[in-house]
Amino acid sequence: MVARKPAGAGGGELTPLDDLMPWSVRPMRTGRPWVTAPDAPSLRARWDLLTRAEDAELERLFRPSRSRTPWTAASALPGRSTGTGGFARDPGPYPEPVRILHGPFDEQWLIPDHRLLDAARPELWRVADGHQIFAVEHGWVPGATGPALSATGLLPDGHSPAGRPGRVRPLYRRPGGREPNLAPGLPELLRTRYGTPVTAESVLSWALAAARPSPAGPLVPLPADGGLWSDGVELGRELLRLHLRGARGGERPRLPGGRRPYVRAAIPPRPTTLDYDPETGTLTLDEGRVAPVPAGVWEFRVGGVRMLELWFGRRTAREGAEGLAALRPRAWPQEWTSQLLELITLLALLDGLGPRQEALRDRLGRSAALTREDLRTAGVLPPSASTRRPASVLDHREEGPEGQFTLL
Q1: Domain tally, the chain
Q2: Is the pLDDT of residue 384 over 70?
Q3: Are 62 and 118 in contact (CB under 8 A)?
Q4: Does the pLDDT of residue 348 top 70, yes or no?
Q5: pLDDT band at 137, cuts 50/70/90?
Q6: Are 61 and 49 in contact (CB under 8 A)?
Q7: What is the Cα–Cα distance from 325 to 43, expressed in whole angstroms?
Q8: CA angle, corner 161, sides to 159 and 167, nearest 5?
Q9: For the residues of 249-289, what is the DSSP string, one character each?
């Protein structure tokens, strides 16, 4: 195989992530904002209010769409036991909420009832387990800075802070960490080229470290040099560990002593403004103060949107909230303070790896790359049509609408 131009020579020399991880799913579409919340108790209060409502009030609170009304029957989500008939006829017991990733870096809660969700993407639920990792594309925003994708062990909704949402790509096509979602022949080709084992996780790690945003989705340069690949995978594994936030047996992100953020002044019950003082490294929530907060954390953006401002706004914005979505905590919960400190820690650690990522990109720009033509010659590209579809689940029964079972 012949290595072509340097990896920074142009988009034509970069391989779309879509070719390396062929199976992808569109982002979840809930259809109504009240089915997700930053806190679980609010979801229970919304459910209870909805189940007590009748007729016109029920319809108003439900917020019908073309896909879902209070009378729409829907199959149970994989792994969930909920009603499958119309919600208005029999809501059934309250389903315990599940933790999801709402856009990048924001862990929230979701009511896992298919009758309430316009497009829940059941194919993602089927493969979500303790072995799965999801790569989430952030979508293209011209001129915006920030990562092209992130990874999570939680079920992601794929929400994009700005611009067109990207795709969600499971690392494995089947539960139990079976059948990597990689172009057939890719691990073998790279193992031969680099002289080192190549796994699905190492490909994802490389993509986290090296991917670049583009209108066509993340582009991933593949170096010709095995040493460069190994360095990028090592960096990517550090990024992946941070993104997973303690999942898969890892540790929660933690800064060394002296750099850890602390609450210096108590956050008030209902803060309305978020600001940052770069001279003192202090984040202020009204009269509440958190420090030290590095400037890179305040400026950390995805799709041009500051992550701290987005996280805070989702918990405090009152304008536009109506109906069930207006049911929120009356006071700032202590758990949000803990989550804020963890988010600051996560963004600080990710920002701290920024110089290494820049150095990797610089080396890639000066190094020979494997091109898409190289991958075609090796028979890796194009991926077959079957690799872009979900894997069949022949031994799994799921309850369909009105209680009918289907064999998938």
Answers
A1: 1
A2: yes
A3: no
A4: yes
A5: very high
A6: yes
A7: 9
A8: 40
A9: T-PPP-PPTTT--EEEEPPPSS---EEEETTTTEEEETTEE
The answer as to whether 303 is a domain residue is yes
- The answer on pLDDT for 393 being more than 80 is no
Q: Are strands 172-174 and 178-180 parallel, antiparallel or unpaired?
A: antiparallel
Phi and psi at 135, nearest 5°, equal -90, 130
What does the block give as tokens for 372?
């898409």
The predicted structure's pLDDT at residue 248: 81
DSSP class per residue in 338-355: HHHHHHHHHHHHHHHTHH
DSSP secondary-structure letter at 146? Answer: S
Q: Residues, the chain, total?
A: 408
Cβ atoms of 156 and 101 closer than 8 Å: yes
DSSP assignment, residue 112? Answer: -
- Average pLDDT of the chain? 92
Confidence of residue 258 (pLDDT cuts 50, 70, 90): confident
For residues 214-242, give the mean pLDDT. 96
**Residue 156 forms part of a structural domain:** no
Specify if 211 maps to a domain: no
Percent share of the chain, pLDDT over 70: 93
Range of the domain at 315: 262-320+333-352
Pick the range with the lowest mean pLDDT from 8-17, 51-60, 112-121: 8-17
- Predicted pLDDT of residue 11: 47
3-state DSSP of 174-198: ECCCEEECCCCCHHHHHHHHHCCCC
Half-sphere exposure of 29 (CA within 13 A, CB side): 12
Q: Are strands 369-370 and 305-306 parallel, antiparallel or unpaired?
A: unpaired
Run of H or E residues at 107: strand 107-110
Residues 6+ apart with CB under 8 A from 176: 129, 131
Residue 269 phi/psi, 5° resolution? -60, -35
Q: What's the count of helices (H) and strands (E) in the chain, helices before strands? A: 12, 21
Distance from C-alpha of 179 to C-alpha of 363, rounded to nearest angstrom: 32
Nearest to 301, CA basis, from 340, 347, 332: 347
- Bridge partner residues of 25 (DSSP): 168
Residue 109 lies in a domain: no
> How would residue 404 be classed by pLDDT, with cut points 50, 70 and 90?
low
Burial class (CB in 10 A: 0-12, 13-18, 19+), 218: buried
Q: Which residue has the tokens 């792994």?
A: 79
